[in-house]
Automatic annotation (TrEMBL):
<comment type="function">
    <text>Cleaves 'Lys-63'-linked poly-ubiquitin chains, and with lesser efficiency 'Lys-48'-linked poly-ubiquitin chains (in vitro). May act as a deubiquitinating enzyme.</text>
</comment>
<feature type="active site">
    <location>
        <position position="16"/>
    </location>
</feature>
<keyword id="KW-0833">Ubl conjugation pathway</keyword>
<protein>
    <recommendedName>
        <fullName>Josephin-2</fullName>
        <ecNumber>3.4.19.12</ecNumber>
    </recommendedName>
</protein>
<dbReference type="InterPro" id="IPR006155">
    <property type="entry name" value="Josephin"/>
</dbReference>
<dbReference type="GO" id="GO:0006508">
    <property type="term" value="P:proteolysis"/>
</dbReference>
<feature type="domain" description="Josephin">
    <location>
        <begin position="3"/>
        <end position="181"/>
    </location>
</feature>
<dbReference type="GO" id="GO:0016579">
    <property type="term" value="P:protein deubiquitination"/>
</dbReference>
<dbReference type="GO" id="GO:0004843">
    <property type="term" value="F:cysteine-type deubiquitinase activity"/>
</dbReference>
<feature type="active site">
    <location>
        <position position="118"/>
    </location>
</feature>
<dbReference type="InterPro" id="IPR040053">
    <property type="entry name" value="JOSD1/2"/>
</dbReference>
<dbReference type="Pfam" id="PF02099">
    <property type="entry name" value="Josephin"/>
</dbReference>
<feature type="active site">
    <location>
        <position position="133"/>
    </location>
</feature>
<keyword id="KW-0645">Protease</keyword>
<dbReference type="GO" id="GO:0005829">
    <property type="term" value="C:cytosol"/>
</dbReference>
<keyword id="KW-0378">Hydrolase</keyword>
<keyword id="KW-0963">Cytoplasm</keyword>
């Protein structure tokens, strides 16, 4: 597949969550900033300062906004327990992957000591997996399933990175994003990792699956 045929939204302000969603759906019209702002308000309608986005209104949306946005399109977001080995994942049943990684905040050439997070989309297109990070100049080819597996293992070895799986509602209910649910539940060879601080990931308004168990179409758009 020609890289020019892949929709790749570039970074603007702190709108990486919006870029991640549009890159996931391969469309600039999948979501808009006003729509994500409405979701923020729906999550915390009584808060004077909305905790789900930047105070300055530049973006910096949290996972709750992403999850709610995907729910509005009939998809479910599953937090992957990175103490588990990604080889347990049933890649053919997963629509896409969203990584949350640390990010520096810069003004001109000055790096500010601010805690920021960055959203990155990974998805399959015509049999190959691509890193659609909005900070990249162009989509980056990861490769096939074995390459994606190695990539995810390397990323999840970092304690500050988290992985979310995007699946259809049916796959979420059936937990068919896993190759084998029984063996996964009884797997004693867990990878070392700290459990993510769920207060940064969930809210009362959003149902996130935190079951360490994974449905996707290979060409989802």
């Amino acid at each position: 597949m020609n890289l020019n045929d892949i929709y790749h939204e570039k970074q603007v302000r702190e709108l990486c969550a919006l870029h991640a969603l549009n890159n996931l759906f391969q469309s600039k019209d999948a979501f808009t900033k006003p729509e994500l702002d409405v979701i923020c308000h729906s999550l915390s309608p009584d808060n004077w300062i909305n905790p789900h986005k930047s105070v300055l209104g530049l973006g910096n949306y949290d996972i709750n906004v992403i999850m709610k946005a995907l729910q509005s399109r009939g998809y479910e977001t599953i937090w992957f327990d990175k103490r588990k080995d990604p080889s347990c994942l049933n890649f053919k049943n997963i629509c896409g992957y969203i990584l949350n990684v640390p990010s520096e905040y810069k003004i001109s050439f000055i790096t500010l000591p601010l805690r920021r997070r960055h959203w990155i989309t990974i998805r399959q297109l015509n049999g190959l997996f691509y890193n659609l990070d909005s900070k990249l100049e162009s989509p980056q080819i990861i490769g096939r399933e074995s390459d994606l597996l190695n990539y995810l293992k390397e990323e999840l070895d970092c304690r500050d990175k988290e992985l979310f799986l995007v699946v259809t509602n049916d796959v979420g209910k059936e937990q068919s994003w896993l190759k084998n649910q029984a063996s996964y539940s009884n797997n004693l060879q867990e990878r070392e990792a700290e459990i993510v601080q769920l207060r940064d990931i969930t809210s009362d308004d959003v149902n996130v699956t935190i079951n360490p168990l994974c449905n996707s179409r290979s060409d989802w758009s």
